[in-house]
């Protein structure tokens, strides 16, 4: 699902949101097993009127550059029209040809016959294959599409057939281009966005970016750095609202006059930005409306539904543009970073533990130091479940037991680490401190003691040698 946001009126800040579903189409390209299997499953469900995949009836196809290139080669060579690879059901093609054969034996030159078909997904693609098959089986007929989008068949003479064949050769490239454009589908919109380098907006969107790259550009490269470089060249402006919320948390807390505890989900972020305290503090707040026929989210929320999430991401980014402290004009200016950083969730509850940049080298990682936990008494032992239960109430944590008496704790953010240190400052069972490598690491202690023993031994040997020399 992709929500396309269009500014309808600059003065009124009126916007219209449209949500579209993308779905792969069965093309019959040899070797395209994943797309073929998925397309077959979806198309079979569509033809069977399955209620489980109703969304597919209005789905828009898509191809990446490699698939488009392979498709053109298969169309030119005629591979897609052989019985081995073509996507149409062979029994369906045979039934149509049987109807044509029944009419053909009793027809004369000049008579016509119409194949009435039900509207279906990929009709242009199906009609192209059906017409090719009928012309191949019946050398004295010609096919065309009538004004009602049905296949019209006419009985003609062999001489007329040769004339039409010669004319068809001149129109062949045009027909193949129309066929290819019908299968490109949403890729055509994507390429317009790419040409004009439109900004992309999402929430925690690493997987979305990987999906877009793989489905609309070409298969993912082996190296992640290659993916980042190519993606940044295509879309230099990418905004992750989760990262933006993380960077503007202090501003929002000041406006709301309360703390925002823990990681913020997309729905929570949208509710915060639409709250009265935030909207009342901003002038020229944009008015957002739905396009006709796309207002299903007006009356109810649908969290984790792709269309609803993309809609809320667009709203959140739009509202970020008008936050106090970022206004550069009467209408506000976009909150934009020199390096668009994308926060990747590293813990189950969404703590920001890794920050990655799409426009070059990753920036320095900013996260709290590990916490070191020890027992206060030598007879006591640590329990990892108990530690996790104690610390998890303050935020996202990861507990690693080093031995029966020591443990390391990785906190999701600085506020979580500070809260744990404060809460367990005088705890009766455990002692919690900041982790220092040279103080708490057994390897560091071994190195220090080994160095001390070695240097002490060298000193004793040197002193003994000196005494021996004097004597």
Stretches where pLDDT is under 50 for at least 5 consecutive residues are 47-52, 325-355
Strand percentage lies at 15-25%
What percentage of residues falls in helices of 4 or more residues? 40-55%
Individual helix count? 17
Profile the largest sheet.
4 strands, antiparallel
Terminal CA distance reads 92 Å
Structural class: alpha+beta
The average pLDDT value, as a whole number, equals 75
Shape annotation: elongated
Strand line-up in the sheet with most strands: 12-13-11-14
- Counted up, domains total 4
Topology:
Elements: E1 2-9, E2 14-20, H1 33-47, H2 65-77, H3 90-105, E3 112-115, H4 123-137, E4 141-145, E5 151-155, H5 158-184, H6 186-195, E6 200-202, H7 206-217, H8 224-234, E7 238-240, H9 241-247, H10 249-256, H11 266-273, H12 276-280, E8 287-290, H13 306-320, E9 341-345, E10 352-357, E11 371-375, H14 384-391, E12 397-401, E13 406-411, H15 414-423, E14 430-434, H16 437-440, H17 442-470
Parallel strand pairs: 2-8, 6-7
Antiparallel strand pairs: 1-2, 3-5, 4-5, 9-10, 11-13, 11-14, 12-13
Helix pairs in contact: 3-4, 11-13
């Amino acid at each position: 699902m992709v929500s396309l946001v269009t500014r309808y009126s600059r003065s009124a800040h009126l916007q219209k949101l449209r949500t579209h579903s993308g779905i792969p189409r069965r093309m019959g390209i040899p070797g395209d097993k994943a797309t073929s299997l998925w397309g077959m499953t979806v198309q079979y469900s569509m033809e069977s009127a399955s209620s489980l995949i109703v969304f597919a009836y209005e789905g828009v196809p898509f191809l990446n550059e490699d698939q488009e290139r392979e498709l053109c080669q298969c169309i030119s060579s005629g591979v897609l029209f052989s019985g081995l690879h073509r996507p149409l059901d062979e029994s369906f093609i045979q039934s149509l040809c049987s109807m044509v054969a029944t009419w053909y034996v009793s027809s004369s030159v000049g008579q016509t016959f119409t194949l009435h078909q039900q509207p279906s997904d990929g009709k242009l693609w199906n009609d192209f294959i059906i017409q090719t098959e009928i012309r191949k089986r019946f050398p004295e007929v010609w096919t065309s599409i009538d004004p009602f989008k049905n296949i019209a068949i006419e009985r003609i003479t062999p001489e007329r057939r040769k004339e039409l064949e010669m004319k068809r050769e001149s129109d062949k490239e045009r027909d193949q281009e129309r066929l290819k454009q019908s299968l490109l589908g949403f890729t055509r919109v994507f390429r317009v966005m790419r040409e004009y380098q439109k900004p992309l907006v999402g929430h925690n969107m690493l997987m979305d970016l990987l999906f877009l790259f793989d489905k609309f550009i070409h298969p993912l490269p082996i190296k992640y750095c290659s993916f980042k470089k190519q993606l940044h060249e295509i879309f230099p402006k990418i905004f992750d609202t989760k990262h933006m919320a993380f960077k503007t948390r202090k501003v929002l807390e000041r406006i709301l006059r309360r703390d925002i505890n823990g990681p913020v989900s997309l729905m929570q972020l949208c509710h915060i930005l639409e709250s009265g305290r935030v909207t009342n503090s901003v002038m020229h707040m944009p008015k957002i409306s739905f396009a006709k026929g796309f207002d299903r989210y007006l009356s109810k929320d649908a969290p984790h539904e792709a269309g609803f999430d993309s809609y809320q991401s667009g709203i959140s980014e739009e509202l970020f543009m008008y936050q106090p402290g970022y206004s550069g004009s009467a209408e506000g200016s976009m909150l934009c970073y020199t390096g668009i950083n994308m926060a990747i969730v590293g813990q189950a509850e969404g703590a920001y533990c890794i920050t990655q940049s799409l426009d070059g080298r990753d920036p320095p990682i900013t996260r709290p130091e590990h916490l070191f936990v020890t027992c206060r008494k030598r007879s006591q032992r640590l329990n990892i479940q108990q530690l996790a239960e104690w610390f998890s109430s303050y935020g996202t944590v990861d507990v690693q037991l080093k031995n029966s008496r020591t443990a390391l704790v990785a906190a999701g953010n600085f506020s979580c680490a500070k809260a744990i240190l404060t809460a367990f400052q005088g705890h009766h069972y455990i002692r919690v401190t900041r982790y220092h490598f040279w103080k708490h690491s057994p390897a560091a202690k071994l190195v220090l003691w080994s160095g001390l023993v070695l240097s002490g031994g060298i000193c004793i040997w040197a002193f003994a040698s000196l005494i021996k020399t004097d004597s």
